[in-house]
Amino acid sequence: MRNTSKRHLLPGFGISMGFTMVYLSLIVLIPISVLFLKASTLSLSDFWQTVSDERVIASFKVTFSSSLIAALVNTVFGTLIAWVLVRYHFWGKRVVDALVDLPFALPTAVAGIALTAIYAPNGWIGQFFEPLGIKIAFSQLGITIALIFIGLPFVVRSVQPVLQDFDAQYEEAASTLGANSFQIFMKIILPAITPALLTGFALAFARALGEYGSVVFISGNMPMKTEIVPLLIITKLEQFDYAGAAAIATVMLLISFLLLFLINFWQWKQAKKHRAVKGV
Amino acid sequence: MSAKKYEERNEKSREGRRSHLLRKWMLIGVALTFLGLFIFLPLIVVFSEATSKGFELYLLALTEPDALSAIKLTLITAAIAVPLNTVFGVLAAWAIAKFEFKGKNILITLIDIPFAVSPVIAGLVFVLLFGSQGLLGPFLEANNIKVIFGIPGIVLATVFITFPFVVRELIPIMQEQGTDEEEAALTLGANGWQMFFRVTLPNIKWGLLYGMILCNARAMGEFGAVSVVSGHIRGLTNTLPLHVEILYNEYNFTAAFAVASLLALLALVTLVIKSFVEWRSEKLRSE
Amino acid sequence: MGISINGVSKKFHSFQAVDQINLTIPTGDFVALLGPSGSGKTTLLRLIAGLELPNSGQILFNDLDYTNKNVKERKVGFVFQHYALFKHMTIFENIAFGLKVRPRKFRPSKQEIKKKVYELLELVQLKEVANRYPSQLSGGQRQRIALARALAVDPEVLLLDEPFGALDAKVRQELRIWLRELHQKMNITTIFVTHDQEEALEMADTIVVMNQGKVEQIGTPQQVYDRPKNAFVYSFLGRVNEFRGEALGTVKDGCHLSDNYVGYLRPHEVHLSTIASDNSLPVEVFHVHSVGASVRIEIKRLDNDTLIEAELSADEYRRIGPFYKGDRLYANCDSIVVFQHQHILEDSLPKTVASTI
Question: Which key words are in the record (chain C) (predicted)?
């Protein structure tokens, strides 16, 4: 009851809110709206022609399928890694835990050239696959690997705290009722971490869609085959086709906004549900 | 449930212990293999490739004039972007965490936009705004101001990309702390500044540091957005990541990895500080 | 400092937290704002402190309009429910805070601050904790430090929000006595919020009973306990037996069998006897709880099987008892007070009480 009106009692609301709005507008909102403005200079048919171009469609397909696969792989292995980090003791765990965040901290260009050096046909690992006729770098497989690198911490860091807080009583109750480990995981733990899993998946997927730096080195950038959307935007820009670049970017941006909205809405709903359960 | 408790529970019976141990080491094995292949190996590759042609070449790659100017530009960029976004982060978090107002959720979502936008698009919007064909292009050209293909463009794109880092760290911390201590300071006669610097700031300092470090790492390492607006002019508008790209595309791999190792080192330092800050705040919370 | 509250209202969104409250508190008074949660007592306290601003009405300090003065200008001492001690400062620094933030020309010297802080630490009997941090203190110690910090700025009004709410029973009892003594020593106008009627009755000079944002009754502990103005105050202050409908009609003649009527009887006003008399109800002993200075007996009415709680002193119990489960007794309920639509029925009062209202 008493938390509902703190208005104007603590000082600084006016100045902080004012600065926030001005800065947000200058740095984010106005520049973003210019993109829509530019895209709107195209007629609807021109717009449609630009974004439905064969090469554009192909790049969307590559971007989406790679991002989806990478996010799914991360969901499975990210959960496993979170589980191992929360539930087991082993030597060097703290270091491993810290290094999970490496993709957040390592500049994408560095990740890009490093992954290429590993998975290129003459690379550390690529050389073993080359004789088998499997090309990792410079194929969609390479793109997916780069996106797995970029997205992994999103899933681990979403799931980890939920597992950490998960009360052992539920598992113990289930085991006293005769459930085996597999049943406990599927029926007790998985439902509890599903919201976090979905959030982690969505974050990893959203990040993968827009990723450029780590992908551009490993992808080979062959039009129709391994060309991702962000690269296509740069290509258009280098050809001074500003409107074309803006049109493609607009489609990407709308998809990103949709994902962002879904993620925030989802988290907000979860938080509300959590509060309701706690009776606050 | 803590790892210790979990393991204790599983080790109660001998039968249970054996199957538990088997499962434990299998899972750890899979997790570490995955992490090794996708996360650790790239890190090792960077340092190994960087020094593969000897230490002298390594040092040379880092001290040639173009590399030095790239380092300088990277530091300048971070020195502008981090303080700006820190000031914004503190003010915005203050408004969002300590006051109730309509549209708060919308504001938080708007602040998240730079996280959701592809870096390439982030660069693109500034080209569309300030580029020669852009909205303000003619005006800037007439006044001989260069934003795109110049340092201002790089800074702007970096500020955009690193915009949410500090504020996103601070909002949950400030919300958790509530307003009691600030109110107490006011009843004791403190003015707004005294309240902020003596009560609020000390309470958020670790989170603030954490946010600033993440912001800094991203500011120094940003590639996509900066690549679009920089124009890749060697020695002039090249940041470290762009310099890596140029060297790499010139097949000068050793030099590329040498410069990259500098950035990788920055990432490692970031992770160390991050772990330290987390350890600190965990300790504070358990007290 | 005397405080007058004239027609103050406060709304949070659609929730009327404080509704047209009028209240006058004389200098040096020790006031309890008593009510259930959601009654608006904390909001009223925060309005007085300036931590909330009213939607309408006036707040006067010594007849000066303070309604629009900010927190800082009001110079009140406020003790928060969860103490709100500054986590990152030592106890010494916490107490010194209010002195250190004064403008330079009013700021005491380092020695003066030190002297004052140690005086206060002595006052709250916690000299030894000066260099510790709040996290190293027990709840009761934090409470006393919070009080010392509030007193450091020499407030003319001391406001305490649920001062003992978070403490265990024993510490709570000790602190009650201690705070009462402190008030007598310093004689600062003190207002505290509580939902515990026992705490209010034991400590305060004046009790303000609140419910749903309104003041139900103001008076001394004696007045509000013995002469409650309405059903809410009666039932909120102390244990009661409640009688409605038929159960009431059989005790009090002339009370119609209507939902508008409700009768209350405190356990110690139930008179038990082994012999029947006029107006007495036949009852059966259900449970005897005989620990301490008083004995609580649950009895079951034989006419409608409802339970009544009776309380007698140990002495009296020894005189007429002992009783065991199933014993037949007679209960006299003449002292029952009947309310119609929340308001007291004058003729239902026992003669002695009615004359004093």
Answer: ATP-binding, Cell membrane, Membrane, Nucleotide-binding, Sulfate transport, Translocase, Transport
The rounded mean pLDDT for chain C is 85
Lowest-confidence pick of B81-95, B192-206, C172-186: C172-186
Q: Which residues of A touch B27 (CB under 8 A)?
A: 80, 83-84, 88
Residues of chain B with C-beta less than 8 angstroms from the C-beta of C82 = 180
- Shared domain for C284 and C199, answered yes or no, is no
| pLDDT score recorded for residue C205 | 93
Collect all residues of chain A within an 8 Å Cβ-Cβ radius of residue B129: 30-31, 34
* Nearest Cα residue in chain C from A2: C43
Tell me the residue range of the domain where C70 lies: 3-230
pTM score, two decimals? 0.84
| Domain end call among C203, C230, C257 | C230
Number of domains in chain C: 2
Buried b (16+ CB within 10 A) or exposed e, A240-252: eebbbbbbbbbbb
Interface check A90 vs B, CB under 8 A: yes
Closest CA to A4 of C13, C26, C59, C293: C13
- CA nearest to B137, candidates B126, B124, B123, B122: B126
Contact B135 A23 (CB under 8 A): no
Let me know whether C70 and C192 are in one domain: yes
Nearest CA-CA distance, residue B212 and chain C, Å: 21
Q: Is A5 on the interface with C (CB under 8 A)?
A: yes
Regions of chain A short of the pLDDT cut 70 = 1-8, 274-280
Q: Which two tokens stand for residue C130?
A: 């000066």
Q: Which residues face C230 on adjacent strands?
A: C343
Kindly identify which residue of chain B lies nearest to residue A162, measuring between CA atoms: B1
Interface-testing mutation among B124, B155, B254, B268, with chain A (most A C-beta atoms within 10 A): B124
**Among partner residues B99, B159, B248, which is closest to A27 by beta-carbon distance?**
B159
Inform me whether the C-beta atom of residue B249 falls under 8 Å from chain C C-beta atoms.
no
**Triad B137, B142, B143: Cα angle to 5°:** 100
Residue numbers of chain C with a pLDDT score lower than 50? 350-357
Instruction: Please report the pLDDT score of residue A1 as a whole number.
Output: 35
| Per-residue pLDDT at C286 | 87
Contact A149 B34 (CB under 8 A): no
**Given the structure tokens 């260009």, which residue do they identify?**
A109
Please state, in angstroms and as integers, the Cα–Cα distance from residue C323 to each residue in B180, C273, C281, C293, C315, following that order.
53, 11, 17, 17, 14
* pLDDT at position B15 over 70: no
B3 vs C74 pLDDT, higher one: C74
Task: Give the model's pLDDT for residue A208.
Answer: 95
Chain B, 166 to 195: residues with Cβ < 8 Å from chain C are 180-181, 183-191, 194
pLDDT at A5: 41
What is the complex's ipTM, to 2 decimals?
Answer: 0.89
CA nearest B6: which of A183, A170, A95? A170
pLDDT the model gives residue C356 = 38
| pLDDT of res. B147 | 85
Q: Which of B183, B190, B202 sits opposite C101 (nearest CB)?
A: B190
Q: State the Cα torsion B41-B47-B49-B52 to the nearest 10°.
A: -130
CB C83 within 8 A of CB B173: no
B44, B113, B120: best to mutate for the A interface, most A CBs within 10 A: B120
With beta carbons under 8 A apart, name residues in chain C contacting A2. 12, 17, 42-43, 46, 52
C-alpha to C-alpha distance for C169 and C7, rounded to whole angstroms = 37
Closest CA to B40 of B221, B272, B275, B264: B264
Q: CA torsion C103→C104→C106→C112, rounded to 10°? A: 120
Domain identity same for C35 and C176: yes
Provide the pLDDT for residue A279. 39
Predicted confidence at residue A3, as pLDDT, reads 39
**Out of A102, A230, A261, whose CB is closest to B118?**
A230
